[in-house]
Write a structure and sequence with these properties.
The complex is a heterodimer.
Chain A (H helix, E strand, L loop, with lengths): L5 H29 L5 H9 L5 H18 L1 H10 L1 H20 L7 H28 L3 E2 L2 E2 L9 H25 L2 H32 L1 H8 L3 H5 L1 H18 L5 H21 L2 E3 L3 E2 H4 L3 H28 L12
Antiparallel strand pairs in A: 1-2, 3-4
Helix pairs in contact in A: 1-3, 1-6, 1-7, 3-4, 5-6, 6-7, 7-8, 7-12, 8-9, 8-11, 11-12
Chain B lengths: L4 H40 L2 H34 L2 H35 L6 H30 L4 E4 L2 E4 L2 H5 L4 H29 L4 H36 L1 H8 L10 E8 L4 E8 L2 H7 L21 H29 L7 H10 L2 H17 L2 E3 L3 E2 L10 H32 L1 H7 L25
Antiparallel strand pairs in B: 1-2, 3-4, 5-6
The chains are: A mainly alpha, B mainly alpha.
Chain lengths: 334, 466
């Protein structure tokens, strides 16, 4: 008998994607907020708060992509062509943003240009990721084992809306990260930014929760049929409680709680999408099991992953520990 | 003009990987060099190691950053432009790519932060550990990506089910027939490339009498390594060639410009390949030398391309010329290294201005050789993505139009033409600043709760307007 590894790979991949969304989410969010800061020293502090960790965070994007490729290759082969241009735009935006970390500090005369690259790159990459998410929820045209739509299927209201929503979502994560890592005026500023982003995120969560069941009958049935509605009603209730707690934490000037609350909001949204789409990985055509790679392939990578992932998390935690505490340089801000 | 999505996708792949490969070619060697310098500093405590390491670490940071962002683009190309290749091969090669990410990228990315910014935050042994881990990560990365490439060149350990490859024997897949040769040939090439850059930069500094001790040490270390590696590389290249003859005879025929099977075979030094007429124009040949070089016997046979149907032949010109560029550079490198060693033994190395100048010109040679070698092996694999089994034409994403790919290719070209020259200019600026002054100006003892105001290099530029 062959052990079915699909559930395990589903969990691993979900964790990897969630980790990426939270961790690169906050440093992309910091990049978005960066553009709204006018003061050069505050910008330097802001950028330094993510400089030692962004590279590791972005690596989870590669792992997420390669994990999907390895565990569910057919999904990779259908989904990625469908979002050809959002992926292109995201990758190029990440290029600009990534090199800005190095180039900004080395070139005084062109500093404004690289400031723009850092902020614009973060903004565009976030938007593109939101578009990918929206296209994914919207579903794909599929013919056999190929994507059968056009490279512009993502140009429609829902993906564009999720693209905009994700900017505020990452903005919230970034602002909460800055509350944690900075002091004084910059921290106050981040707190106000977090409040604005929180309102926008809650509006977006509500909008998606209404929009998707109206657009897809499968999703409406999943949530509103009996007895599902009884089991699933805690999801919106818990989300509302977290949202309230997040608002209070910001108002009471907590430092760590807002960041944790923002992560919890993302987690609830993530769970909500998973409930809506389960067990589809190429929405409305292929399930996780139908797109899975051979058991031997999944097993071969799983052995290494189960051994390496804890090690990776350990030394990632170590590198965060090394750079713990408030970012210095805020003193120059006053 | 009709835009062909396959041709444009190939151009796009070539464009993004050609730029990308230049960075590992440099950073793999440089990471090892920095780890050695950090190790020497840890053991001896001499400032010279600290200065040289700091100097190269700043340059490493820029090149590694560019390597990361241009590398993230690569795995997505499999999905965006080569989805049918992905669907057919993912069961076999995707875990190799995923292992590269798991083992190498995380290791590099996490320890890079400590290497670049953690000098004052962690004990010296931990800083050395970070340098070592980054270097180890780059080597692991080469291992897995070359295992993947080697499987595409010389597939093994698979079976075909419904037109898709499925794994049978993982050790045969990872250690496919061309892998050991490709791995050692590539890593050696990357070390040589870096050593020529280090030697060239040392020579540049020395000729301007800047940081003289540091510059001499760089040249001495680079030359010492090259004296071993350049001849070794020629041996490895020869072995790799024998392997290619056995497993990819059509590629070898293209490299040799050989359309007709010959026994004994001459060595074609030069000529103009004509694929339509299947003949070499104006060929300059040396009798029997081809057999001697490629079969290590006086009368070995070299198969010609006419043994394969026309639609299974690679184009001859790119591998033929690229191979000659690569070998030509190897010969030039050998001459330089032997000359340098001779001068050093005679104690005249530091006075031989002409030789130092030669080293400066030779600094980029490794990159040219790496690109030439890559063109040889990849174009020589055509018209297949998986050699002899899956055609390039059957690998491309079906939903793409020529216009789609033309647009994305134009975007990649535009962005890379901004990013790479800028990065190279920044690295040139770091070289011009030299090692000594920056290291001295940086206060080595000051400890802050977070990190320096700027990630590194804070003293080497003007203070920001507060």
């Amino acid at each position: 008998m062959v052990l079915d590894l699909v559930p395990l790979w589903t969990i691993l991949l979900a964790l990897a994607v969630f980790y990426y969304v939270v961790f690169d989410g906050f440093d992309l969010g910091v990049g978005i907020l960066y553009g709204l800061l006018r003061d050069d020293a505050a910008r330097t502090t802001t950028m330094n708060s993510v400089a030692p960790v962004w590279d590791g965070n972005e690596t989870w994007l590669v792992f997420g992509g390669l994990g999907l490729l390895t565990a569910f290759p057919l999904a990779f082969a259908i989904i990625i062509p469908a979002v050809y241009f959002p992926i292109l735009i995201m990758l190029l935006a990440l290029v600009f943003r990534g090199v800005a970390f190095e180039f900004r500090f080395k070139h005084m005369t062109l500093r404004r240009l690289w400031d723009g690259a850092f902020c614009g790159g973060s903004l565009v990459a976030t938007f593109a990721q939101g578009v990918v998410l929206g296209t994914f929820i919207q579903g794909f045209k599929v013919d056999g084992r190929h994507f059968a739509g056009s490279s512009f299927d993502w140009v429609s209201p829902f993906p564009i809306a999720t693209g905009v929503a994700l900017m505020f979502g990452y903005g919230l994560l970034g602002a909460c990260w800055l509350i944690l890592k900075t002091e004084g005026e910059l921290q106050d500023w981040a707190r106000r930014a977090a409040g604005i982003c929180l309102v926008a995120v809650l509006v977006a969560i509500a909008a998606v929760s209404i929009w998707t069941p109206l657009a897809r009958v499968e999703i409406a049935q999943r949530w509103f049929s009996w007895p599902n509605i009884a089991f699933l009603s805690p999801v919106p209730i818990v989300t509302a409680l977290i949202a309230f707690g997040e608002w209070e934490a910001l108002r009471r000037r907590h430092e760590l709680t807002p960041f944790l609350g923002a992560i919890a909001l993302f987690l609830m949204s993530f769970i909500g999408i998973a409930i809506s789409l389960w067990p589809m990985i190429v929405p409305y055509h292929y399930t996780l099991w139908q797109t899975a790679s051979s058991p031997s392939t999944q097993a071969f990578l799983l052995i290494g992953t189960l051994f390496l992932l804890p090690v990776i998390l350990m030394y990632t935690a170590w590198s965060y520990w090394v750079f713990r505490g408030k970012v210095s340089g805020a003193a120059g801000y006053h | 003009m009709i835009l062909d999505p396959m041709l444009l996708s190939r151009l796009q792949w070539a464009w993004v990987i050609a730029w990308h490969i230049l960075l590992p070619a440099f950073t793999i060697g440089l990471a090892s060099y920095i780890a050695v310098l950090e190790g020497l500093y840890l053991v001896t405590g001499w400032d010279i190691w600290f200065r040289i390491s700091g100097f190269w670490t700043r340059i490493f940071a820029v090149s590694f950053g560019m390597g990361v962002v241009s590398g993230i683009i690569m795995p997505f190309q499999f999905g965006t432009n080569w989805s049918r290749f992905t669907d057919a091969t993912a069961n076999v090669i995707s875990p190799l790519l995923a292992y590269e990410g798991l083992m190498a990228f995380f290791l590099e990315a996490s320890f890079l932060g400590v290497l670049l910014f953690g000098r004052r935050l962690v004990p010296p042994w931990a800083h050395f550990l970070a340098a070592f881990m980054v270097a180890f990560g780059t080597l692991l990365s080469s291992f897995w990506i070359l295992a993947t490439n080697s499987w595409m060149q010389t597939p093994a350990g698979y079976k075909v089910v419904d037109g898709r490859f499925e794994p049978v024997d993982w050790s045969a897949i990872v250690f496919s027939p061309s892998f050991p040769y490709r791995f050692f040939h590539n890593v050696t090439a990357f070390y040589i490339t870096t050593a020529f850059v280090v030697m060239g930069v040392g020579a540049w500094l020395l000729r301007r009498e800047r940081a003289v001790d540091d510059a001499r040490m760089m040249i001495r270390m680079a030359l010492g390594l090259l004296v071993i590696l350049v001849p070794l590389q020629m041996f490895l290249g020869d072995q790799h060639g024998l392997n290619t003859r056995e497993y990819q005879p059509a590629k070898l025929a293209a490299i040799e410009g050989r359309y007709d099977t010959a026994q004994p075979a001459p060595l074609t030094l030069f000529g103009i390949p004509d694929d339509t007429a299947a003949t070499m124009r104006g060929a300059i040949e040396i009798p029997r030398l081809g057999s001697l070089v490629l079969t290590h016997s006086w009368s070995g046979a070299i198969r010609g391309l006419k043994e394969w149907p026309a639609d299974e032949r690679p184009p001859v010109a790119p591998p033929f010329f690229a191979f000659r560029v690569m070998v030509g550079i190897a010969v030039i490198m050998l001459i330089i290294v032997v000359t340098g060693q001779f001068l050093q033994l005679r104690g005249r190395l530091w006075d031989a201005t002409w030789f130092l100048r030669l080293c400066e010109f030779a600094a980029p040679l490794g990159f040219v050789a790496v690109l030439a070698g890559w063109i040889t092996t990849e174009v020589g694999r055509q018209p297949w993505t998986v050699y002899g089994l899956l055609r390039t034409a059957d690998s491309v994403t079906p939903s793409l139009t020529g216009g789609n790919v033309a647009f994305s290719l134009a975007c990649y070209v535009a962005v890379y033409l901004i990013m790479f020259p800028t990065g190279i200019a920044f690295m040139a600026g770091l070289v011009r600043r030299g090692p000594r002054q920056a290291e001295l100006e940086e206060p080595p003892t000051e400890i802050e709760s977070g990190r320096p105001h700027q990630p590194f290099d804070s003293a080497a530029r003007a203070a920001p307007p507060l």
